[in-house]
Specification:
Blueprint (H helix, E strand, L loop, with lengths): L3 E6 L3 H11 L5 E5 L6 H4 L4 E5 L6 H9 L4 E6 L2 H10 L6 E5 L6 H23 L8 H8 L6 E6 L3 H8 L11 E5 L5 H11 L4 E4 L5 E3 L2 E4 L5 E6 L7 E9 L11 H11 L4 E5 L8 H7 L4 E6 L8 H8 L5 E3 L1 H11 L10
Parallel strand pairs: 1-2, 1-3, 3-4, 4-5, 6-7, 6-13, 7-10, 8-10, 13-14, 14-15
Antiparallel strand pairs: 9-12, 11-12
Length: 351
Amino acid sequence: MSQITFAISCQDKTLKTIVQSIVETIPNIQFIEIQNPIETGVVTHCDIILLEQEAGFTSELESTIQKYSNLSWIVVCSSSMECRELKKRISSGLYVEFLFKKSAASHSELERYYSSFFSGFLSYYRTQRTLHSIQTSEKEAKAKTKQKPFDLVAIACSTGGPDALKTIIPNLPANLGVPILIVQHMPAEFTRNLANNLDNHSQLFVTEAKDGGNIDLNSVYIAPGGFHMKVKRLHHPMNGQLPLRLRLTTEPPVNNCRPSADVLFTSLSKEFNGHVLAVVLTGMGVDGREGVKELQKTNTYCLTQRQDTCVVYGMPKAVIEAGLSNETLPLASIAKRISSLLKPDGELGNE
């Protein structure tokens, strides 16, 4: 039976030990250490390569990653800022994951953190890269054919939304497997601060959306204040991206809002053929209701925030009273439910 060769180039002994202990428990994976990933002879014999950014992420090494795009790379960064900068520099068309290295944590906490990441990473690697050299058992073959029930999460919120997002986004795993698009009613500049704050406290990459930007997996995009956020269908997406691109417009406000959740949701219903998990959180007014109505004509499931945990119950109430909500949950349960629904065996309906 063929093996996956998992190579690591890392100076952090704790990280190296934990990663090795995790990888070696998984069947059909060979763990090796390499000193210089730039050496062609070494790279060509590997399937997955983990690099610690602090170990020397040079332009030459960056070129090597670009050159060997058939391999999968994990870049370990010491801060979320480094992850953001490297993600900008390296083509998102390559299969490169960025892992934030925790330091102020106990050994058991680090084991749980890295175990969660690598379990999801390797599962995604097997299904998406289709390793031709691996023969799986019947049980593994069934697991490989399972697809995530949802391809994208879209969130709408207004009054009380920033605190609600701070309860949800930091509690989602780094290997969520889908992107998240968020409309939060806020003035310009405030949404950028919100994105930066969430990014500093989350395992996912969080940023303010940019016009024409790609939509990457395990990334969160917040509509900037003063702009509607839409999506545009791509006919030839790159690996690791949805077949969509972000569009920002200054079209007139909808529901007295810009950005408007109705605009985003309606755009998704027209431009995206995938399955959407819509989430409507605390907020004044009815923004989101008509958009969810359009999404429900396609492949959508909708969660709403329960009244007693809302600052203002307007937006969730409008969706619920229109008969468009599939589940209503307290704020503290929403992150866990999103994660559960995104698993291949996630069950719909109230838990």
